[in-house]
Amino acid sequence: MNHKDAEFDPQAESTYECFDCGTVVRATAPDACPECGAEMRNRRTPIE
Known about the structure:
Helix content is 0%, strand content 25%. It has no helices and three strands. It has strands at residues 14-18, 24-27, 40-42. It is globular. This is Rubrerythrin-like domain-containing protein.
């Protein structure tokens, strides 16, 4: 595993952030932002 990758446990909650509106949620794996429907990203995964 690359040291920059977040460990993935599909049963564990993590913090996700919306790419468009910035909404932050705790969830296991959201399909889309609950506010605007855009893609979400796991905040533990670097954007670089």
